[in-house]
Design brief:
Blueprint (H helix, E strand, L loop, with lengths): L3 E8 L2 E8 L2 E7 L27 E3 H6 L13 E3 L2 H19 L4 E2 L14 H11 L4 E4 L6 H10 L12 H7 L2 E5 L4 H4 L11 H10 L3 E5 L13 E3 L6 H14 L5 H7 E2 L1 H8 L10 H8 L3 H13 L2 E5 L10 H14 L8 E4 L11 E2 L15 E4 L3 H6 L4 E4 L2 E4 L5 E5 L3 H4 L3 H7 L5 E5 L5 H4 L3 E3 L9 E3 L6 E5 L12 H11 L3 H5 L4 H20 L6 H7 L1 E3 L2 E2 L6 H5 L13 E2 L3 H6 L26 E4 L15 H4 L8 E5 H7 L6 E6 L2 E10 L6 E3 L8 E2 L4 E2 L26 E6 L7 H13 L2
Helix pairs in contact: 2-18, 3-18, 4-13, 5-7, 8-11, 8-12, 8-13, 11-12
Bound molecules: ligand MGD (2 copies) and molybdenum atom.
One ligand MGD binds next to helix 15.
């Protein structure tokens, strides 16, 4: 028996120490400074198992033979041929050179969306972009799957999207000053487990306990009662999905009808309020927006809506809006309507008043935020400016040369020949995966770099096995995190995998840009360099001392300079002239000149209720259910899907779909039954989980089950909701993803169905067996 060695490390779900004996992980201990560590930390043991790892660089046999003239329908079914690293990186470099030479760099898509690991040095998509920028550029993406419609509309109406990313009122001020808190979506420890780039301490619970202790009146507006912890006293308003904008506007209309809107705030701090008021009182379209009107759309009682509207103006009130609300068709509207409602109430800029977005959607949003510079690899200057809105990937691949709009501009989709994905899993994250499957046959070549044999890697021409973060040294930390964390190498690389930096360094070398890529530094040289940039900035700009690199590395953490007790827009409220916002008017935009000129039906000149493409109130869908796909509690997206925390949430070898017990009884579905969810886009299986904490007519299937289509029909057996979801932009303005807009049918499934894990494994064996 060897001695147990301890390695400080970090992932998006928190910091921990890995205990290793004789090269094997024998324990995972939570970070001592974390009051609420995530159970997912234990699942990292899975990374050390070879079962689903890519163990060797591989090339699809048809591509190896015919290159860009291969039969692309073979992707995902044709066998892979193992190759050496030297051959693999030569093939990659040659292909980048060929495509950029023959077709120009815009025909290379390296947007490569995805969360990869939390290490900021080996950050796969940053290193890919750094490499490609040195090689002449690439087509990238803007915005994220998390937030797109939201920041686009807030940039236009608030002049910035910081209120979406953790710099609206911090939760400490809400916990101390708010009297009425309306939560649209969730304030959930489930999502607050994660933070992009790692998190040192999970602080949500502390703030929620204080809210409970102060006896704040809390209203949870969500189809799911579990969106707040059960120990926080709250009224539950089980709203119909995708109708929050109507509820917000109905309350705004009630306030206006009673003459209680803050005229002083509206005239000093907003522009275009007259357009919104004309919509609310019905002079624009003949329909008065009030509690009765909203009740009809949202499926909530009108008297409660009217009462809450009065409470908003009678007490110090705060609206929080989860990111999920804007991942829906017309997702711009709830974000803008909340801003409109808060402006009518007139408490924006006061402690505990106003509106903010994304609280607890990530662990750092609403927590104290980092005033220092967080570590990160530079992607270097972009030689070309070619991009798509992130979720328009299938549109782009299917429609080269077609035009589309974004933020008021008309642009053209490039013709993509080569796709390079590193650290993301589009066969997890994108909507309407069967449509993505059709789009995926368009590029001549697809390269995927990932530790895991994901559904995306299965469908690549060249697969490069990256190692996981525990097989190399790295550094974690982000703009919201209270710590910078050391990520020590704990085990040797699994199989023939290599670090992302080593892979790109070799490719950059073969492209003739190696020295500019690595700047003469090795792994530890880079970590020291990146840490010292943050340390020097904190000392020089903020007079904040951080330990020297060696001390940091040894102890595993360093504290960051944090901002607490932040009241968003306080200066602006006091003096809007001197603190003008970067909007068309310098004020909060409630009626937009720009959008009036653009004249879009799906994003109008003021916040409005616009019916989504699919929802419970639409005619002709009796017996169907609104499917929401929330973030999984036991893993991050598709990562560590086989880990214990993730498996604990599955039953019968597949993901569970939450369904109202009364609905289930009507359908003859019992708890634990296998059910089939379907619509015209696809079908999947799931295990029924009956509950009275979900609105009737709504079902929830978490994201992240590994895409496992089977048989000729392609029935997905693991429970991946993205075979069902809708792949359309949120609007012509924002073009975000609309994942939460999706109607499905459900039935008890009586056909044969094996264990999804086994079926996934069989597929891997068929693809990669030598
Ligand atoms: N229906 C529906 N779909 C959704 C959502 C929804 O609400 N509903 N949410 C969306 C949201 S908000 C998001 S952010 C996306 C998430 O989508 P993704 O970010 O694509 O999901 P992940 O599973 O985190 O994928 C990360 C990939 O990186 C790999 N990886 C991990 N570490 C490393 C590394 O060190 N190097 C390399 N090269 N690879 C690594 C993992 O194995 C994994 O394949 O999903 C979106 N999809
Ligand atoms: N454990 C874990 N944590 C995560 C992640 C993960 O994969 N696992 N992913 C992280 C990422 S990348 C992101 S972007 C965030 C996302 O953070 P969020 O977007 O906040 O998370 P979701 O779980 O998608 O949605 C939160 C809740 O919103 C409710 N909801 C959905 N649609 C509507 C609606 O139309 N109206 C109302 N009122 N409520 C609605 C649902 O009941 C759902 O439970 O989570 C992060 N945190
Ligand atoms: Mo996200």
């Amino acid at each position: 028996m060897g001695a147990i060695r301890r390695y400080p490390h970090c992932s998006h779900w928190g910091a921990y120490t890995i205990l290793v004996e004789d090269g094997r992980i024998v324990g995972v201990e939570p970070f001592a400074h974390d009051p609420a560590p995530s159970p997912i930390i234990d699942s990292i043991r899975e990374w050390a198992r070879p079962d689903r790892r890519v163990l060797q660089p591989m090339v699809r046999s048809g591509w190896l033979e015919k290159r860009e003239r291969s039969d692309r329908s073979g992707r995902g079914s044709e066998k892979f041929v193992p190759v050496s690293w030297d051959d693999a990186t030569t093939l990659v470099a040659d292909e980048i050179r060929r495509v950029s030479g023959e077709h120009g760099n815009a025909s290379i898509f390296a947007g490569s969306y995805g969360w990869t690991s939390c290490g900021r040095f080996h950050h796969a998509s940053s290193l890919l972009k750094r490499t490609m920028n040195l090689a002449g550029g690439f087509t990238g993406h803007v915005d994220t799957y998390s937030i797109a419609a939201g920041p686009v509309i807030l940039r236009h109406t608030l002049g910035s999207d910081v209120a979406c990313g953790g710099q609206a009122n911090t939760l400490d001020t809400i916990a101390e000053h708010t009297e009425t808190l309306v939560v649209f979506g969730a304030l959930s420890p489930r999502t607050a487990q994660s933070e992009a780039g790692g998190i040192g301490s999970h602080a949500l619970e502390k703030h929620l306990r204080r809210i409970a202790e102060r006896g704040v009146k809390v209203v949870l507006v969500s189809p799911l009662r579990d969106d707040l912890p059960d120990w926080l006293p709250a009224e539950w308003w089980p709203i119909r999905p995708n109708t929050d904008a109507a509820l917000m506007l109905g309350m705004a209309g009630e306030i206006a009808k009673a003459g209680r809107h803050d005229r002083d705030f509206l005239s000093r701090c907003t522009s275009g309020a007259d357009r919104l008021l004309a919509y609310l009182d019905g002079s624009e379209d003949g329909v008065r927006k009030d509690a009765d009107w909203a009740a009809e759309i949202c499926g909530l009682p009108a008297d409660a809506i009217a009462q809450l509207a009065r409470r908003l103006v009678d007490t110090r009130s705060m609206l929080t809006v989860s990111w999920s609300l804007q991942r829906a068709h017309h997702g711009e509207q709830p974000f803008w309507a909340a801003l409109g409602l808060a402006s009518m109430v007139g408490q924006i800029g006061l402690p505990g008043g106003g509106v903010g977005y994304g609280y607890a959607s990530l662990g750092g949003v609403g927590a104290h935020y980092n005033l220092g510079k967080s570590p990160g690899m530079s992607q270097l200057a972009k030689p070309i400016d070619s991009f798509i809105p992130v979720a328009r990937i299938s549109d782009m691949l299917l429609n080269p040369g077609a035009s589309y709009t974004y933020e008021g501009q008309t642009r053209t989709y490039p013709h993509i020949r080569l796709v390079y994905w590193a650290g993301g899993n589009p066969y997890h994250h994108h909507q309407d995966l069967n449509r993505l499957g059709r789009a995926w046959t368009r590029p001549e070549t697809i390269i995927v770099q990932d530790p895991m044999f994901t559904a995306t890697a299965q469908r690549a021409d060249i697969v490069l096995p990256a190692n996981t973060s525990i097989e190399r040294n790295d550094i974690a930390g982000n703009k919201r995190s209270d710590f910078i964390l050391a990520m020590h190498k704990a085990i040797d690389p699994v199989g023939n995998s290599r670090s992302d930096f080593a892979i790109f360094d070799e490719i950059a070398g073969k492209l003739g840009v190696g020295e500019r890529f690595n700047e003469g530094r090795d792994e530890m040289g880079w970590l020291r360099h990146l840490y010292n940039i943050s340390r020097d900035d904190a000392a020089g700009r903020l007079g904040f001392d951080m330990p020297d690199f060696d001390t940091f590395w040894e102890q595993g953490w360093a504290r960051c300079p944090m901002k607490t007790d932040h009241v968003y827009l306080a200066e602006f409220r006091d003096n809007p002239q001197d603190n003008a916002l970067a909007t068309e008017s310098g004020r909060i935009v409630l009626g937009s000149e720009t959008l009036a000129r653009l004249d879009y039906a799906d994003c109008r000149e003021h916040p409005a209720w616009i019916e989504p493409a699919e929802w419970l109130g639409a005619a002709g869908n009796a017996g169907q259910f609104h499917l929401l796909s929330q973030q999984p509690v036991g893993r991050l997206h598709s990562q560590l899907e086989t880990g214990e925390a993730s498996r604990a949430m599955k039953r019968g070898g597949r993901e569970q779909v939450l369904i109202n017990a009364t609905d289930a009884a009507t359908l003859g579905i019992a708890d634990g039954d296998t059910v089939r969810l379907s619509n015209e886009r696809g079908a999947c299986l799931a295990t029924a989980d009956l509950s009275d904490g979900i609105r009737q007519g709504v079902v929830i299937l978490p994201t992240g089950a590994w895409f496992t289509p089977t048989g000729n029909s392609g029935l997905e057996v693991a429970g991946n909701p993205n075979v069902l979801t809708l792949d359309v932009g949120t609007s012509q303005f924002g073009q975000g993803c609309s994942a939460q807009t999706c109607m499905v049918s459900i039935e008890r499934y009586t056909g044969a169905s094996g264990d999804a894990f086994e079926q996934y494994h069989e597929k891997l064996v068929a693809l990669a067996a030598a």
